[in-house]
Each structure stands twice: as structure tokens, then as C-alpha cells.
Design a protein that fits this description.
One of its GO terms (cellular component) is plasma membrane. Its main location: membrane. Helices cover 80% and strands 0% of the residues. It is built from 10 helices and no strands. Helix 3 packs parallel to helix 9. The mean pLDDT is 88.
């Protein structure tokens, strides 16, 4: 991969991590489909690069919030969600490998990922638009939290995105969290899911990649976390929700393109 392509990957990672950190979707939900659309690397390589980038961003964001003492993570809810997400992430990675092995061209799974992500994102978009009229709940059961984390981790890892709009929808609906609290807890979940995803990838064999591209993307992810944290303190919940809606529309459009590209 040329230096120009690597720099472009870094810019995408920076922008996606900034927006993803603000909206609580981790950035991978944009990085993965956006880089797939370029077609400069295999689906598995982009998934690995995205995983490392999002992990770098979430390690910074969660670590900085906890050490600064301004974290709004609800550990009673967030920890079983995160642990479930980690185990679900391992299962999702295994499902990805199994399905990818069914195709002569392993990149064909990119079409399946795009369709599934697009459908889930459309559902999340509809819920977010209608959510003011939807009754939410205040569940606190550890087993329910773990199960929900398991499901979210499975889809996040299978799709190679780390997290997604569905994290926030679940946190809104089942736990009645406000937007900023949901964002913080979503990033906490993504940290565990991506950590488990990376360990599984390393154990199963790392795809071919460029070290310069990986390091630049991880730098972009951390810078996105730095700027996202600063901006998050200066904007209110309605602004975050508008950014979230705009991001979902962008994701849907990219997914439509990728579904066509990888099915051709």
C-alpha cells in the first residue's frame, strides 16, 4: 500500500473515531465500510486494521475518563454488558471465519456484512427518530445485561465494526440512559469487544497488513479520541443525537454501495 493510501486511511480513521467517539459507536462502524469501499485491501485485513484502530481509541477514551474522574459509565450495568460483549465478540469472529470459508472468494462476505449492517442501521435510524414516543425501561438484572452484551458483541465482531448504532438503541430502550451516558457506556463495551476480537484474530492468524498503515490508523484513532473527548464536553445531548442521525444515514449509503460492490 502506498504512503498516500496509508495517509488517506489515517484521515478516515481520525474522522470516524472523532465522530464515533462523540456518538458512542466507536468509529469502526464507519472505518470498516468506508475502507471496504476503497477496495485497496482484503475484507479480513481491513477488519483487522479497524479493530486495532478502534481499540486504540477506546483504550484512550475510557482510560482518560476513569483517571480524570469524570466518567459517567454505570459499572453495575456496563460491566456485565462489556463482559457479555467480549464473549459475544469471540463467537462473532468464529461465525465470520466459518461463513468466509464457504466462499471461493473470501471478499464476498463483505456483501453479507454490508447488507446486515445496513438493515440493522435502518432499524436503529427508525427507532432514534421515533424514540421520544417509545416507552423505555430501567432494567438492572446482571443476567439480562450479560445476554444483551453477548448479542451486541456477536454482531459487532461478525460485522468487523467493534460497535454500532445498535449499542445506543439497546442502552436507550432497556436502561433509559440519556445520550451522553449511553455514549460512555457504549465505548466501554466496545473496548471489551474489540480486545477479545483482537486476541481471537491473533490466535487464529493475522491477515497480511502494512505496519505503516496500521500505526497511522491507530494514531488517527487516538487523535479522534482526544478531540472527541474535548468536543463532547462542549456540546449538548440534542447535538449528539443529530450527529448520530447523520452518521447512520452515511453508514446506510456506504453499505448500499458495498453490498453492490462485493456482490458483483
Amino acid at each position: 500500500m502506498s504512503i498516500g493510501q496509508s495517509l488517506l486511511f489515517m484521515i478516515v480513521s481520525l474522522a470516524a473515531s472523532l465522530a464515533g467517539g462523540l456518538c458512542g459507536v466507536g468509529g469502526g462502524v464507519v472505518i470498516k465500510p468506508a475502507l471496504d469501499a476503497f477496495g485497496w485491501a482484503s475484507v479480513s485485513t481491513i477488519g483487522f486494521l479497524s479493530t486495532c484502530t478502534v481499540l486504540a481509541m477506546t483504550v484512550y477514551s475510557v482510560g482518560k475518563s476513569l483517571t480524570a474522574g469524570d466518567s459517567v459509565i454505570d459499572l453495575r450495568i456496563g460491566t456485565p454488558l462489556a463482559l457479555g460483549s467480549a464473549i459475544g465478540g469471540v463467537a462473532g469472529k468464529a461465525a465470520y471465519s466459518a461463513i468466509a470459508g464457504l466462499f471461493a472468494n473470501p471478499n464476498r462476505i463483505g456483501s453479507i456484512q454490508a447488507v446486515v449492517l445496513g438493515i440493522l442501521t435502518v432499524g436503529c435510524l427508525i427507532y432514534t427518530v421515533k424514540k421520544d414516543g417509545i416507552r423505555t425501561h430501567h432494567f438492572r438484572g446482571t443476567l439480562l445485561c450479560f445476554f444483551l452484551g453477548l448479542v451486541l458483541g456477536f454482531f459487532s465482531s461478525f460485522l468487523g465494526i467493534g460497535g454500532g448504532p445498535f449499542n445506543l438503541v439497546v442502552l436507550y430502550y432497556f436502561f433509559s440512559m440519556d445520550t451522553k451516558t449511553a455514549v460512555a457506556n457504549s465505548i466501554y463495551m466496545i473496548l471489551f469487544c474489540q480486545g477479545a476480537n483482537l486476541l481471537t484474530t491473533v490466535a487464529g492468524g493475522i491477515p497480511a497488513f502494512s505496519w505503516s498503515t496500521l500505526l497511522l490508523m491507530m494514531l488517527g484513532g487516538v487523535l479522534g479520541g482526544v478531540f472527541g473527548r474535548k468536543i463532547n464536553k462542549r456540546i449538548d445531548n440534542p447535538t449528539v443525537e443529530k450527529l448520530f442521525l447523520a452518521m447512520m444515514v452515511l453508514i446506510i449509503l456506504i453499505c448500499v454501495y458495498n453490498a453492490w460492490q462485493y456482490s458483483a
